[in-house]
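A common beginner's mistake is to predict each chain separately and then try to dock the pieces by hand. The better habit, illustrated here, is to supply every component at once so that their relative placement is modeled jointly.
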Amino acid sequence: MQTTSSSLQRQEKQDVSHIKNILDNKSLTFAEKVISIKNVETRNKRSQIISMAGDIVIVDVDLAMAQDSTGPLAIRSLNEMGIDKLHDPSKALLVIDHTFPAADEKVANLHALIRDFVSKHNCMKIEGSISHQHILEYLATPGMMILGADSHTCQAGCVSAFATGIGSTEIAAVWATGQLWLRVPETIKINLSGTFNKGVFARDLILDYIGKVGEDGANYKALEWKFSNDYVKRQFSMDSRACISNASMECGAKISVFPTDEITTKYLDENPRINNNMGGKIEIQPGTSAKYKDEFEIECDKIEPQVSGPDNIDKVHSIEELANVEIDQAFIGSSTNGRIEDLEIAAHMLKGRKVHKNTRCVVTPASVKVYEDAIRRGYVEIYLESGAVFTNATCGACVGTHLGALGENEICISSSSRNFVGRMGALSSKVYLASPATVAASAIEGKIADPRRYL
Amino acid sequence: MTMNDQPIIIASISKGRAWVFGDNINTDIIIPFRFKSRTNDPYEMAKYAMYGFDPDFHKKISKGDIVIAGRNFGGGSSREQAPVALKYAGISAVIAESFARIFYRNAFTIGLPALEIPEIKGKVNQGDEIKIDITKFTAENIRTKETFHASKVPEFMRQMLLEGGLVEYYKKYKQFPWIQS
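With all components supplied together, the output reads:
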Protein backbone atom coordinates (compact mmCIF):
# COMPACT_ATOMS: atom_id res chain seq x y z
CA MET A 1 0.00 0.00 0.00
CA GLN A 2 1.32 3.41 -0.97
CA THR A 3 1.67 5.90 1.84
CA THR A 4 0.85 9.45 0.84
CA SER A 5 2.83 12.32 2.28
CA SER A 6 -0.26 13.69 4.05
CA SER A 7 -0.87 10.38 5.82
CA LEU A 8 2.81 10.35 6.80
CA GLN A 9 2.43 13.81 8.28
CA ARG A 10 -0.70 12.69 10.11
CA GLN A 11 1.27 9.71 11.42
CA GLU A 12 4.07 11.92 12.69
CA LYS A 13 1.57 14.13 14.47
CA GLN A 14 0.07 11.07 16.18
CA ASP A 15 3.54 9.91 17.22
CA VAL A 16 4.30 13.28 18.72
CA SER A 17 0.94 13.44 20.50
CA HIS A 18 1.22 10.09 22.28
CA ILE A 19 4.82 10.79 23.23
CA LYS A 20 3.69 14.15 24.58
CA ASN A 21 1.00 12.34 26.61
CA ILE A 22 3.68 10.18 28.20
CA LEU A 23 5.91 13.19 28.88
CA ASP A 24 3.00 15.04 30.51
CA ASN A 25 1.89 12.06 32.62
CA LYS A 26 2.09 13.17 36.25
CA SER A 27 2.27 9.70 37.79
CA LEU A 28 5.42 8.41 36.06
CA THR A 29 9.02 8.50 37.22
CA PHE A 30 11.81 9.48 34.84
CA ALA A 31 12.58 5.80 34.13
CA GLU A 32 8.91 4.97 33.52
CA LYS A 33 8.57 7.86 31.07
CA VAL A 34 11.60 7.04 28.96
CA ILE A 35 10.89 3.31 28.88
CA SER A 36 7.23 3.99 27.98
CA ILE A 37 8.40 6.10 25.04
CA LYS A 38 11.03 3.58 23.94
CA ASN A 39 8.76 0.54 24.46
CA VAL A 40 8.48 -1.09 21.01
CA GLU A 41 4.73 -1.48 21.68
CA THR A 42 4.36 2.30 21.88
CA ARG A 43 5.99 2.51 18.47
CA ASN A 44 4.09 -0.44 16.96
CA LYS A 45 0.64 0.59 18.15
CA ARG A 46 1.38 4.29 17.84
CA SER A 47 -0.37 4.90 21.11
CA GLN A 48 0.55 5.58 24.69
CA ILE A 49 1.71 2.31 26.30
CA ILE A 50 2.60 2.89 29.94
CA SER A 51 5.42 0.85 31.46
CA MET A 52 5.59 0.83 35.24
CA ALA A 53 8.30 -0.24 37.69
CA GLY A 54 8.65 -4.02 37.66
CA ASP A 55 7.42 -4.47 34.06
CA ILE A 56 9.66 -6.28 31.61
CA VAL A 57 9.53 -4.65 28.21
CA ILE A 58 11.38 -4.63 24.91
CA VAL A 59 12.77 -1.22 24.03
CA ASP A 60 14.23 0.46 20.97
CA VAL A 61 17.86 1.37 21.61
CA ASP A 62 19.24 4.64 20.22
CA LEU A 63 22.92 3.94 20.87
CA ALA A 64 24.74 0.68 21.69
CA MET A 65 28.38 1.02 22.70
CA ALA A 66 31.22 -1.38 23.44
CA GLN A 67 34.83 -0.57 24.30
CA ASP A 68 38.17 -2.25 23.76
CA SER A 69 37.79 -4.69 26.65
CA THR A 70 34.15 -5.64 25.96
CA GLY A 71 33.87 -5.14 22.18
CA PRO A 72 36.01 -8.15 21.21
CA LEU A 73 33.70 -10.51 23.12
CA ALA A 74 30.63 -8.87 21.51
CA ILE A 75 32.21 -9.40 18.07
CA ARG A 76 33.03 -13.01 18.98
CA SER A 77 29.40 -13.62 20.02
CA LEU A 78 28.05 -12.08 16.80
CA ASN A 79 30.37 -14.31 14.80
CA GLU A 80 29.34 -17.43 16.74
CA MET A 81 25.67 -16.62 16.11
CA GLY A 82 26.46 -16.22 12.43
CA ILE A 83 25.10 -12.67 12.31
CA ASP A 84 26.98 -10.63 9.73
CA LYS A 85 24.67 -7.66 9.32
CA LEU A 86 23.96 -4.99 11.93
CA HIS A 87 20.45 -3.58 12.35
CA ASP A 88 21.66 0.02 12.11
CA PRO A 89 25.44 0.61 12.09
CA SER A 90 24.93 4.34 12.72
CA LYS A 91 23.68 3.43 16.22
CA ALA A 92 26.65 1.19 17.02
CA LEU A 93 29.68 2.81 18.65
CA LEU A 94 33.04 1.15 19.29
CA VAL A 95 35.48 2.97 21.55
CA ILE A 96 39.14 2.13 22.02
CA ASP A 97 39.71 3.86 25.35
CA HIS A 98 40.77 1.52 28.14
CA THR A 99 44.27 0.60 27.01
CA PHE A 100 44.88 3.29 24.38
CA PRO A 101 47.31 3.34 22.67
CA ALA A 102 47.90 -0.40 22.93
CA ALA A 103 50.23 -1.24 25.81
CA ASP A 104 51.39 -4.54 24.31
CA GLU A 105 50.92 -7.00 21.47
CA LYS A 106 47.92 -8.80 22.98
CA VAL A 107 46.00 -5.55 23.38
CA ALA A 108 47.05 -4.41 19.89
CA ASN A 109 45.58 -7.58 18.36
CA LEU A 110 42.22 -6.96 20.06
CA HIS A 111 42.27 -3.32 18.94
CA ALA A 112 42.86 -4.55 15.38
CA LEU A 113 39.84 -6.87 15.70
CA ILE A 114 37.70 -3.85 16.62
CA ARG A 115 39.05 -1.70 13.77
CA ASP A 116 38.35 -4.48 11.24
CA PHE A 117 34.80 -4.85 12.57
CA VAL A 118 34.21 -1.09 12.33
CA SER A 119 35.44 -0.87 8.74
CA LYS A 120 33.43 -3.93 7.72
CA HIS A 121 30.15 -2.61 9.20
CA ASN A 122 30.77 1.13 8.93
CA CYS A 123 29.77 1.86 12.52
CA MET A 124 31.05 4.74 14.67
CA LYS A 125 34.50 4.53 16.25
CA ILE A 126 36.45 6.69 18.67
CA GLU A 127 40.00 6.15 19.88
CA GLY A 128 41.44 7.79 22.98
CA SER A 129 38.56 9.66 24.59
CA ILE A 130 36.75 7.60 27.26
CA SER A 131 33.44 6.35 25.83
CA HIS A 132 31.25 7.97 28.50
CA GLN A 133 32.90 11.36 28.08
CA HIS A 134 32.66 11.18 24.28
CA ILE A 135 28.97 10.24 24.54
CA LEU A 136 28.40 13.20 26.87
CA GLU A 137 30.33 15.66 24.68
CA TYR A 138 28.85 14.69 21.30
CA LEU A 139 25.99 12.18 21.34
CA ALA A 140 23.67 11.97 24.36
CA THR A 141 20.35 13.83 24.47
CA PRO A 142 17.47 13.90 26.96
CA GLY A 143 15.24 10.84 26.61
CA MET A 144 17.76 8.85 24.59
CA MET A 145 18.05 5.10 25.26
CA ILE A 146 21.75 4.29 25.57
CA LEU A 147 23.12 0.84 26.36
CA GLY A 148 26.81 0.21 26.76
CA ALA A 149 29.03 -2.76 27.48
CA ASP A 150 30.61 -0.79 30.30
CA SER A 151 29.12 -0.30 33.73
CA HIS A 152 29.73 3.46 33.79
CA THR A 153 27.48 4.00 30.77
CA CYS A 154 25.03 5.36 33.37
CA GLN A 155 27.05 8.61 33.23
CA ALA A 156 24.80 9.94 30.42
CA GLY A 157 22.01 10.27 32.99
CA CYS A 158 23.59 13.67 33.64
CA VAL A 159 21.95 14.94 30.42
CA SER A 160 18.64 13.17 31.10
CA ALA A 161 19.38 10.11 28.97
CA PHE A 162 18.31 6.63 30.06
CA ALA A 163 21.75 5.05 30.02
CA THR A 164 22.89 1.79 31.56
CA GLY A 165 25.52 -0.91 31.35
CA ILE A 166 25.01 -4.46 30.06
CA GLY A 167 27.28 -7.28 28.90
CA SER A 168 29.07 -7.89 25.60
CA THR A 169 26.77 -10.56 24.14
CA GLU A 170 23.67 -8.48 24.88
CA ILE A 171 25.29 -5.53 23.06
CA ALA A 172 25.81 -7.93 20.15
CA ALA A 173 22.06 -8.69 20.25
CA VAL A 174 21.27 -4.95 20.22
CA TRP A 175 23.59 -4.41 17.26
CA ALA A 176 21.74 -7.23 15.49
CA THR A 177 18.16 -6.12 16.25
CA GLY A 178 18.18 -2.54 17.58
CA GLN A 179 16.28 -3.77 20.64
CA LEU A 180 16.67 -5.36 24.06
CA TRP A 181 14.52 -6.35 27.02
CA LEU A 182 14.69 -4.22 30.16
CA ARG A 183 13.04 -4.38 33.53
CA VAL A 184 11.60 -0.99 34.49
CA PRO A 185 13.48 -0.04 37.67
CA GLU A 186 11.99 1.26 40.89
CA THR A 187 13.26 4.74 41.69
CA ILE A 188 14.94 6.32 44.68
CA LYS A 189 14.52 10.08 44.74
CA ILE A 190 17.33 12.09 46.30
CA ASN A 191 16.51 15.61 47.42
CA LEU A 192 19.50 17.94 47.50
CA SER A 193 19.63 21.05 49.65
CA GLY A 194 22.27 23.40 51.06
CA THR A 195 25.55 24.62 49.62
CA PHE A 196 28.92 22.91 49.57
CA ASN A 197 31.56 24.07 51.99
CA LYS A 198 35.03 24.97 50.73
CA GLY A 199 36.95 21.91 49.55
CA VAL A 200 33.83 19.77 49.07
CA PHE A 201 32.75 18.61 45.62
CA ALA A 202 30.27 16.35 43.82
CA ARG A 203 32.61 13.38 44.32
CA ASP A 204 32.49 13.86 48.09
CA LEU A 205 28.69 13.92 47.91
CA ILE A 206 28.41 10.66 46.01
CA LEU A 207 31.06 8.91 48.15
CA ASP A 208 29.20 10.07 51.26
CA TYR A 209 25.92 8.69 49.84
CA ILE A 210 27.49 5.32 48.90
CA GLY A 211 29.03 5.12 52.37
CA LYS A 212 25.54 5.44 53.84
CA VAL A 213 23.64 3.05 51.53
CA GLY A 214 26.40 0.51 50.74
CA GLU A 215 27.74 -0.98 47.52
CA ASP A 216 24.34 -2.52 46.72
CA GLY A 217 22.25 0.30 48.19
CA ALA A 218 20.72 1.15 44.80
CA ASN A 219 21.10 -2.24 43.09
CA TYR A 220 18.53 -2.54 40.23
CA LYS A 221 17.20 0.94 41.11
CA ALA A 222 17.07 4.26 39.33
CA LEU A 223 18.40 7.29 41.18
CA GLU A 224 16.63 10.58 40.44
CA TRP A 225 18.35 13.74 41.67
CA LYS A 226 16.21 16.73 42.66
CA PHE A 227 17.30 20.21 43.70
CA SER A 228 15.38 21.97 46.46
CA ASN A 229 15.84 25.37 44.77
CA ASP A 230 17.67 27.20 41.99
CA TYR A 231 20.51 28.21 44.26
CA VAL A 232 21.27 24.56 45.03
CA LYS A 233 20.86 23.66 41.36
CA ARG A 234 23.45 26.16 40.16
CA GLN A 235 26.24 24.45 42.12
CA PHE A 236 25.77 21.34 40.01
CA SER A 237 27.56 22.02 36.73
CA MET A 238 27.41 19.43 33.95
CA ASP A 239 30.85 18.14 34.97
CA SER A 240 29.71 17.58 38.56
CA ARG A 241 26.46 15.92 37.41
CA ALA A 242 28.51 13.62 35.18
CA CYS A 243 30.63 12.65 38.19
CA ILE A 244 27.55 11.80 40.26
CA SER A 245 25.74 9.88 37.49
CA ASN A 246 28.93 7.95 36.73
CA ALA A 247 29.81 7.08 40.33
CA SER A 248 26.23 6.01 41.12
CA MET A 249 27.21 2.68 39.56
CA GLU A 250 29.23 2.01 42.72
CA CYS A 251 26.02 1.51 44.71
CA GLY A 252 24.54 -0.59 41.90
CA ALA A 253 22.24 2.02 40.31
CA LYS A 254 20.84 1.03 36.92
CA ILE A 255 20.47 4.67 35.93
CA SER A 256 21.24 7.92 37.76
CA VAL A 257 19.46 10.86 36.22
CA PHE A 258 19.20 14.60 36.40
CA PRO A 259 15.87 15.85 35.01
CA THR A 260 16.28 18.32 32.14
CA ASP A 261 16.80 21.93 33.25
CA GLU A 262 18.46 25.10 31.95
CA ILE A 263 21.92 23.72 32.77
CA THR A 264 21.20 20.71 30.53
CA THR A 265 19.91 22.95 27.74
CA LYS A 266 22.85 25.34 27.99
CA TYR A 267 25.30 22.44 27.87
CA LEU A 268 23.63 20.98 24.78
CA ASP A 269 23.59 24.40 23.09
CA GLU A 270 27.30 24.89 23.76
CA ASN A 271 28.22 21.33 22.77
CA PRO A 272 26.26 20.56 19.59
CA ARG A 273 25.30 16.93 19.00
CA ILE A 274 26.90 15.30 15.98
CA ASN A 275 24.01 12.87 15.47
CA ASN A 276 20.66 14.30 14.50
CA ASN A 277 18.81 11.03 14.17
CA MET A 278 19.32 9.56 17.62
CA GLY A 279 16.95 11.46 19.85
CA GLY A 280 14.59 14.39 19.62
CA LYS A 281 14.76 17.70 21.41
CA ILE A 282 12.66 16.63 24.35
CA GLU A 283 12.81 17.46 28.03
CA ILE A 284 12.28 14.77 30.63
CA GLN A 285 10.82 15.69 34.00
CA PRO A 286 9.51 13.09 36.43
CA GLY A 287 5.78 13.37 37.20
CA THR A 288 4.88 15.33 40.31
CA SER A 289 2.86 12.42 41.73
CA ALA A 290 5.24 9.64 40.64
CA LYS A 291 5.66 6.75 43.07
CA TYR A 292 9.10 6.29 44.61
CA LYS A 293 10.55 3.22 46.28
CA ASP A 294 12.39 5.48 48.69
CA GLU A 295 13.40 9.10 49.25
CA PHE A 296 16.69 10.34 50.62
CA GLU A 297 17.72 13.79 51.83
CA ILE A 298 21.21 15.16 51.32
CA GLU A 299 22.25 18.47 52.87
CA CYS A 300 25.31 19.58 50.90
CA ASP A 301 26.52 21.82 53.72
CA LYS A 302 26.81 18.81 56.05
CA ILE A 303 29.27 16.97 53.79
CA GLU A 304 33.03 16.98 54.38
CA PRO A 305 35.79 15.80 52.06
CA GLN A 306 35.55 12.00 51.86
CA VAL A 307 38.12 9.29 51.25
CA SER A 308 36.94 5.81 50.32
CA GLY A 309 38.84 2.59 50.76
CA PRO A 310 40.81 0.57 50.47
CA ASP A 311 39.19 -2.46 48.77
CA ASN A 312 35.55 -1.34 49.01
CA ILE A 313 33.86 1.86 47.94
CA ASP A 314 31.37 2.02 50.80
CA LYS A 315 34.25 2.15 53.31
CA VAL A 316 34.29 5.95 53.50
CA HIS A 317 36.32 8.01 55.94
CA SER A 318 36.98 11.60 56.84
CA ILE A 319 40.44 12.83 55.89
CA GLU A 320 41.44 13.04 59.58
CA GLU A 321 40.89 9.29 59.96
CA LEU A 322 43.44 8.58 57.21
CA ALA A 323 45.81 11.53 57.65
CA ASN A 324 49.43 10.38 57.52
CA VAL A 325 48.73 7.39 55.23
CA GLU A 326 51.74 7.79 52.93
CA ILE A 327 51.14 7.39 49.22
CA ASP A 328 53.29 6.19 46.33
CA GLN A 329 51.04 7.54 43.60
CA ALA A 330 48.33 10.16 43.10
CA PHE A 331 46.08 9.70 40.07
CA ILE A 332 43.78 12.36 38.63
CA GLY A 333 41.70 11.02 35.78
CA SER A 334 39.03 8.52 34.62
CA SER A 335 35.42 8.95 33.51
CA THR A 336 34.47 9.62 37.13
CA ASN A 337 36.75 12.64 37.64
CA GLY A 338 38.92 13.42 34.61
CA ARG A 339 36.96 16.37 33.22
CA ILE A 340 38.09 19.98 32.76
CA GLU A 341 36.71 21.18 36.12
CA ASP A 342 38.63 18.36 37.81
CA LEU A 343 41.85 19.29 36.03
CA GLU A 344 41.17 22.95 36.83
CA ILE A 345 40.89 22.57 40.60
CA ALA A 346 43.94 20.30 40.83
CA ALA A 347 46.00 22.64 38.59
CA HIS A 348 44.95 25.60 40.74
CA MET A 349 46.28 23.79 43.81
CA LEU A 350 49.49 22.55 42.19
CA LYS A 351 50.39 25.91 40.65
CA GLY A 352 53.76 27.02 42.02
CA ARG A 353 54.00 23.87 44.15
CA LYS A 354 55.80 20.56 43.67
CA VAL A 355 54.61 16.99 43.83
CA HIS A 356 56.17 15.39 46.94
CA LYS A 357 59.52 13.70 46.22
CA ASN A 358 58.29 10.27 47.38
CA THR A 359 55.16 10.42 45.25
CA ARG A 360 54.45 10.27 41.55
CA CYS A 361 51.44 12.14 40.23
CA VAL A 362 49.71 10.98 37.04
CA VAL A 363 47.13 13.18 35.32
CA THR A 364 45.00 11.65 32.55
CA PRO A 365 42.28 13.67 30.79
CA ALA A 366 38.98 11.86 30.15
CA SER A 367 38.82 12.93 26.52
CA VAL A 368 40.74 14.58 23.71
CA LYS A 369 38.50 17.63 24.15
CA VAL A 370 39.39 17.83 27.85
CA TYR A 371 43.07 17.50 26.85
CA GLU A 372 42.76 20.37 24.35
CA ASP A 373 40.98 22.56 26.91
CA ALA A 374 43.71 21.79 29.47
CA ILE A 375 46.42 22.87 27.02
CA ARG A 376 44.57 26.04 26.09
CA ARG A 377 44.01 27.02 29.70
CA GLY A 378 47.65 26.42 30.64
CA TYR A 379 46.98 23.51 33.01
CA VAL A 380 49.31 21.08 31.25
CA GLU A 381 52.21 23.47 31.82
CA ILE A 382 51.30 23.80 35.51
CA TYR A 383 51.20 20.02 35.92
CA LEU A 384 54.55 19.54 34.18
CA GLU A 385 56.18 22.28 36.30
CA SER A 386 54.86 20.62 39.46
CA GLY A 387 56.54 17.36 38.47
CA ALA A 388 53.35 15.50 37.49
CA VAL A 389 53.06 13.26 34.42
CA PHE A 390 50.38 14.34 31.94
CA THR A 391 49.24 11.46 29.71
CA ASN A 392 47.05 11.07 26.64
CA ALA A 393 43.29 10.64 27.11
CA THR A 394 42.51 7.04 28.16
CA CYS A 395 41.12 5.05 31.11
CA GLY A 396 44.74 4.18 31.91
CA ALA A 397 45.70 3.77 35.54
CA CYS A 398 42.06 3.40 36.68
CA VAL A 399 42.08 -0.18 35.42
CA GLY A 400 45.77 -0.90 36.14
CA THR A 401 46.45 -1.72 32.52
CA HIS A 402 49.06 0.94 31.65
CA LEU A 403 50.23 4.50 32.48
CA GLY A 404 50.39 4.11 36.24
CA ALA A 405 49.96 0.50 37.41
CA LEU A 406 50.82 -0.24 41.05
CA GLY A 407 53.48 -2.66 42.34
CA GLU A 408 53.45 -4.84 45.47
CA ASN A 409 52.21 -3.00 48.58
CA GLU A 410 52.05 0.36 46.83
CA ILE A 411 49.41 2.87 47.87
CA CYS A 412 47.58 5.21 45.51
CA ILE A 413 45.06 7.95 46.12
CA SER A 414 42.91 8.35 43.05
CA SER A 415 40.01 10.31 41.60
CA SER A 416 39.10 7.24 39.50
CA SER A 417 36.10 4.97 39.81
CA ARG A 418 37.07 1.97 41.94
CA ASN A 419 39.39 0.83 44.72
CA PHE A 420 38.77 -2.93 44.52
CA VAL A 421 41.50 -5.46 45.36
CA GLY A 422 44.14 -5.39 42.62
CA ARG A 423 42.18 -2.82 40.61
CA MET A 424 45.25 -0.78 39.71
CA GLY A 425 47.88 -3.54 39.80
CA ALA A 426 49.35 -5.90 42.42
CA LEU A 427 46.86 -7.67 44.71
CA SER A 428 48.70 -6.25 47.71
CA SER A 429 48.46 -2.65 46.45
CA LYS A 430 45.86 -0.33 47.96
CA VAL A 431 43.69 2.33 46.34
CA TYR A 432 41.90 5.17 48.12
CA LEU A 433 39.30 7.23 46.23
CA ALA A 434 38.74 10.95 46.67
CA SER A 435 37.93 14.17 44.82
CA PRO A 436 40.60 15.60 42.48
CA ALA A 437 41.23 18.34 45.07
CA THR A 438 41.98 15.81 47.82
CA VAL A 439 44.18 13.86 45.40
CA ALA A 440 46.11 17.03 44.49
CA ALA A 441 46.63 17.97 48.17
CA SER A 442 47.87 14.43 48.81
CA ALA A 443 50.26 14.63 45.84
CA ILE A 444 51.81 17.76 47.36
CA GLU A 445 52.21 16.28 50.86
CA GLY A 446 53.05 12.69 49.89
CA LYS A 447 50.29 11.44 52.21
CA ILE A 448 46.51 11.64 52.35
CA ALA A 449 45.89 15.34 52.92
CA ASP A 450 43.13 17.89 53.38
CA PRO A 451 42.50 20.05 50.27
CA ARG A 452 41.07 22.93 52.29
CA ARG A 453 44.48 24.26 53.25
CA TYR A 454 45.34 24.82 49.56
CA LEU A 455 42.10 26.54 48.52
CA MET B 1 45.82 -15.58 19.23
CA THR B 2 44.84 -19.18 19.72
CA MET B 3 41.17 -19.74 20.15
CA ASN B 4 39.40 -22.73 21.61
CA ASP B 5 35.97 -22.88 20.04
CA GLN B 6 34.43 -25.60 22.15
CA PRO B 7 31.53 -24.10 24.15
CA ILE B 8 30.69 -25.50 27.58
CA ILE B 9 27.03 -26.27 28.20
CA ILE B 10 26.11 -26.93 31.81
CA ALA B 11 23.66 -29.78 32.47
CA SER B 12 20.25 -28.86 33.89
CA ILE B 13 20.89 -31.03 36.94
CA SER B 14 24.39 -31.05 38.39
CA LYS B 15 26.32 -31.73 41.60
CA GLY B 16 29.45 -30.11 42.92
CA ARG B 17 31.45 -29.10 45.97
CA ALA B 18 30.89 -25.71 47.54
CA TRP B 19 33.40 -22.86 47.69
CA VAL B 20 32.04 -20.39 50.24
CA PHE B 21 32.65 -16.63 49.92
CA GLY B 22 31.43 -13.52 51.74
CA ASP B 23 29.68 -10.33 50.61
CA ASN B 24 30.66 -7.95 47.77
CA ILE B 25 32.80 -10.31 45.68
CA ASN B 26 33.28 -7.86 42.82
CA THR B 27 34.26 -8.42 39.19
CA ASP B 28 37.81 -7.14 39.75
CA ILE B 29 38.24 -10.03 42.20
CA ILE B 30 36.60 -12.49 39.78
CA ILE B 31 38.90 -11.49 36.89
CA PRO B 32 41.26 -8.48 36.91
CA PHE B 33 41.09 -6.07 33.98
CA ARG B 34 44.70 -6.52 32.87
CA PHE B 35 44.09 -10.22 32.14
CA LYS B 36 40.58 -10.10 30.73
CA SER B 37 41.48 -7.25 28.37
CA ARG B 38 44.30 -9.23 26.75
CA THR B 39 42.45 -12.28 25.44
CA ASN B 40 39.22 -13.20 23.69
CA ASP B 41 39.48 -16.91 24.52
CA PRO B 42 37.22 -18.22 27.33
CA TYR B 43 39.69 -20.97 28.27
CA GLU B 44 42.42 -18.36 28.70
CA MET B 45 40.08 -16.17 30.82
CA ALA B 46 39.45 -19.25 33.01
CA LYS B 47 43.09 -19.19 34.18
CA TYR B 48 42.34 -15.96 36.06
CA ALA B 49 39.02 -16.95 37.66
CA MET B 50 38.89 -15.58 41.23
CA TYR B 51 42.46 -14.31 40.81
CA GLY B 52 41.80 -11.53 43.33
CA PHE B 53 40.93 -14.16 45.92
CA ASP B 54 43.60 -16.70 44.99
CA PRO B 55 45.64 -16.68 41.74
CA ASP B 56 45.65 -20.51 41.86
CA PHE B 57 41.88 -20.86 42.32
CA HIS B 58 41.47 -22.38 38.84
CA LYS B 59 43.96 -25.14 39.75
CA LYS B 60 42.35 -25.91 43.10
CA ILE B 61 38.76 -26.39 41.97
CA SER B 62 37.30 -29.52 40.39
CA LYS B 63 34.96 -29.55 37.42
CA GLY B 64 31.39 -28.96 38.60
CA ASP B 65 32.26 -27.09 41.80
CA ILE B 66 29.85 -24.43 42.96
CA VAL B 67 30.42 -20.90 44.26
CA ILE B 68 28.34 -19.91 47.29
CA ALA B 69 28.41 -16.22 48.15
CA GLY B 70 26.82 -13.53 50.27
CA ARG B 71 25.30 -10.26 49.14
CA ASN B 72 26.00 -8.40 45.90
CA PHE B 73 28.03 -11.04 44.08
CA GLY B 74 29.62 -9.66 40.89
CA GLY B 75 29.40 -5.94 41.63
CA GLY B 76 31.35 -3.36 39.67
CA SER B 77 32.32 -3.77 36.04
CA SER B 78 30.02 -5.00 33.24
CA ARG B 79 32.68 -7.50 32.17
CA GLU B 80 31.03 -10.60 30.77
CA GLN B 81 34.44 -12.23 31.18
CA ALA B 82 33.60 -12.61 34.91
CA PRO B 83 30.92 -15.32 34.55
CA VAL B 84 32.77 -16.69 31.50
CA ALA B 85 35.98 -17.17 33.52
CA LEU B 86 34.09 -18.97 36.30
CA LYS B 87 32.23 -21.22 33.87
CA TYR B 88 35.28 -22.16 31.81
CA ALA B 89 37.32 -22.76 34.97
CA GLY B 90 34.79 -25.49 35.77
CA ILE B 91 32.31 -23.75 38.09
CA SER B 92 28.82 -25.11 37.36
CA ALA B 93 26.73 -22.57 39.29
CA VAL B 94 26.86 -19.54 41.55
CA ILE B 95 24.45 -19.28 44.47
CA ALA B 96 24.35 -15.94 46.25
CA GLU B 97 22.17 -14.08 48.73
CA SER B 98 21.96 -11.42 46.03
CA PHE B 99 23.65 -10.54 42.74
CA ALA B 100 24.76 -7.25 41.25
CA ARG B 101 22.51 -6.38 38.32
CA ILE B 102 24.85 -6.70 35.35
CA PHE B 103 26.59 -9.86 36.58
CA TYR B 104 23.17 -11.51 37.01
CA ARG B 105 22.15 -10.68 33.41
CA ASN B 106 25.54 -11.76 32.10
CA ALA B 107 25.46 -15.10 33.93
CA PHE B 108 22.20 -16.07 32.21
CA THR B 109 23.45 -14.69 28.90
CA ILE B 110 26.56 -16.85 28.91
CA GLY B 111 24.84 -19.89 30.42
CA LEU B 112 26.19 -19.96 33.97
CA PRO B 113 23.38 -20.81 36.43
CA ALA B 114 23.03 -17.94 38.93
CA LEU B 115 20.63 -18.72 41.77
CA GLU B 116 19.55 -15.94 44.09
CA ILE B 117 18.79 -17.55 47.45
CA PRO B 118 18.74 -15.01 50.32
CA GLU B 119 18.34 -17.76 52.96
CA ILE B 120 21.53 -19.59 51.87
CA LYS B 121 23.50 -17.50 54.38
CA GLY B 122 25.17 -19.81 56.91
CA LYS B 123 23.57 -22.95 55.43
CA VAL B 124 26.54 -24.23 53.44
CA ASN B 125 30.01 -25.18 54.66
CA GLN B 126 33.12 -25.17 52.52
CA GLY B 127 33.22 -28.50 50.66
CA ASP B 128 29.54 -29.43 51.13
CA GLU B 129 28.09 -31.28 48.16
CA ILE B 130 25.38 -29.21 46.47
CA LYS B 131 22.85 -30.38 43.89
CA ILE B 132 21.54 -27.77 41.47
CA ASP B 133 18.40 -28.22 39.36
CA ILE B 134 17.77 -25.42 36.89
CA THR B 135 14.57 -26.97 35.59
CA LYS B 136 13.10 -26.34 39.07
CA PHE B 137 15.48 -23.54 40.05
CA THR B 138 16.45 -25.27 43.29
CA ALA B 139 19.62 -26.04 45.21
CA GLU B 140 19.99 -28.86 47.71
CA ASN B 141 22.66 -29.23 50.36
CA ILE B 142 23.24 -33.02 50.28
CA ARG B 143 24.83 -32.96 53.77
CA THR B 144 21.89 -31.25 55.51
CA LYS B 145 19.22 -32.50 53.07
CA GLU B 146 17.90 -28.93 52.90
CA THR B 147 16.43 -27.73 49.61
CA PHE B 148 16.36 -24.02 48.71
CA HIS B 149 14.22 -22.32 46.05
CA ALA B 150 15.88 -19.58 44.05
CA SER B 151 14.16 -16.29 43.17
CA LYS B 152 12.06 -16.62 40.02
CA VAL B 153 13.23 -15.15 36.74
CA PRO B 154 11.29 -14.46 33.52
CA GLU B 155 10.66 -17.72 31.68
CA PHE B 156 12.72 -16.64 28.66
CA MET B 157 15.77 -16.23 30.90
CA ARG B 158 15.37 -19.75 32.27
CA GLN B 159 14.92 -21.13 28.74
CA MET B 160 18.04 -19.30 27.60
CA LEU B 161 19.97 -20.79 30.53
CA LEU B 162 18.72 -24.32 29.79
CA GLU B 163 19.97 -23.99 26.20
CA GLY B 164 23.43 -22.94 27.41
CA GLY B 165 23.12 -19.16 27.03
CA LEU B 166 22.15 -16.58 24.44
CA VAL B 167 24.56 -17.65 21.70
CA GLU B 168 23.52 -21.33 21.92
CA TYR B 169 19.83 -20.35 22.07
CA TYR B 170 20.20 -18.20 18.97
CA LYS B 171 22.14 -20.90 17.12
CA LYS B 172 19.27 -23.32 17.77
CA TYR B 173 16.20 -21.10 17.21
CA LYS B 174 17.60 -18.27 15.01
CA GLN B 175 15.73 -15.92 17.29
CA PHE B 176 16.42 -14.07 20.55
CA PRO B 177 14.59 -15.58 23.53
CA TRP B 178 12.82 -12.39 24.64
CA ILE B 179 11.10 -12.01 21.25
CA GLN B 180 7.60 -13.49 21.47
CA SER B 181 6.63 -15.17 18.24
